[in-house]
Specification:
Layout (H helix, E strand, L loop, with lengths): L9 H5 L4 H13 L1 H4 L15 H21 L8 H10 L2 H6 E3 L5 E3 L6 H14 L5 H8 L17 H16 L11
Antiparallel strand pairs: 1-2
Helix pairs in contact: 4-5, 4-9, 5-8, 5-9, 8-9
The structure holds fe (ii) ion (FE2).
Length: 186
């Protein structure tokens, strides 16, 4: 097996973003610190430990760096690596809004996921941070988990950016679902 490239912590990953988006992400991390640093990646399926949400985001972003390198060495891509990393930062933000710690220490979803959460996240970015997602970013966050009920037999629903976000996410959540506790080692 080849020696793997280093795994980057979230702080190092955010350094890959353009400065205004990096600052935005740091502000979000600060504002939601009490929730975002303790919730799991999911309740039962991946990165289920306390703090697993950040582990999952970190893993998916690191996986994305690998995918982006492999793909862009073969054909040019219509989006930057920074675009994809930024969308991965946001792709599960509904969990920050939905997951809450229970009296017994477990984490429960206070609401089930629905497609309306993309609009809630976009509204939060706009109202709290003055940031308007581009159409491609919105599409990537909305379809990070696939096209679902929006699948169309002849129209492409997920855009290219959504697709690399989805691939990075699902590799973390379904291949390496129990990995990622160490932010700096594979
Ligand atoms: Fe995810």
């Amino acid at each position: 097996m080849q020696k793997p490239p280093p795994k980057l912590s979230l702080a190092k990953l955010l350094d890959r973003l353009e400065p205004s988006k990096r600052d935005l992400c740091w502000q979000v991390l600060e504002d939601y610190h009490e929730i975002i640093t303790v919730i799991p990646g999911a309740q039962t399926k991946h990165q289920t430990w306390e703090g697993g949400y950040i582990s999952h985001v970190e893993e998916a972003m690191n996986i994305c760096i690998g995918l982006y390198g492999v793909l862009s060495a073969r054909r040019s891509l219509s989006f930057s690596l920074a675009d994809a990393l930024f969308c991965i930062f946001w792709h599960d933000f509904d969990k920050v809004l939905r997951f809450r710690k229970q009296a017994d220490g477990s984490f429960m979803a206070t609401k089930s996921y629905g497609s309306e959460f993309t609009d809630k996240i976009a509204e939060l970015a706009r109202k709290q941070y003055g940031y308007e997602f581009t159409a491609d970013e919105y599409n990537a966050i909305k379809y990070a988990h696939g096209e679902g009920k929006d699948y169309h037999p002849s129209d492409r629903i997920m855009g290219p950016l959504a697709t690399i976000v989805h691939c990075s996410d699902v590799i973390s959540a379904r291949i390496w679902f129990d990995e990622g506790r160490d932010p700096t080692a594979w």
